[in-house]
Write a structure and sequence with these properties.
single chain; 124 residues; mainly alpha; two-stranded antiparallel ribbon; 3 helices; 2 strands; elongated
Length: 124
């Protein structure tokens, strides 16, 4: 058979060298925290700031309803929470809500914190 070209000739592939990866950017070094006894944290003086911490709201804090009354059945609230929510008007403090519902201030704070965590009220 004569030397004839193949139907599917093989091609030589170019060799690929190691890929060029640029070096990582230089990260600036931050100054170490000042741990001297005179360093004090800066206090935030905003009263209207909503915090999602696990601490209880102050008894002087004022809860405000942020959900429509028609949507409250979706939250599966107990009777005590419904009694508290009936009195929430955006002007009464938690201590006043506790007096009007005949519960302790601590219990009212716990209920208000639970309602805040569920997204029913906002505490200011």
């Amino acid at each position: 058979m004569p030397d004839r070209p193949s139907r599917h000739p093989t091609r030589k592939l170019a060799r690929v060298g190691a890929p060029h990866v640029p070096p990582a950017p230089v990260v600036p070094k931050l100054a170490a925290e000042d741990k001297t006894p005179t360093a004090r944290p800066v206090a935030v003086k905003s009263r209207s700031r909503q915090t999602d911490s696990l601490t209880l709201p102050s008894s002087r804090a004022v809860p405000k309803l942020i959900v429509a009354h028609d949507d409250l059945p979706w939250f599966n609230l107990d009777d005590q929470m419904h009694r508290i929510l009936a009195l929430v008007d955006g002007m009464r403090s938690i201590a006043e809500l506790a007096r009007r519902t005949a519960t302790t201030a601590r219990e009212a704070q716990l209920r208000i914190a639970d309602l805040r965590a569920r997204g029913v009220i906002r505490v200011e």
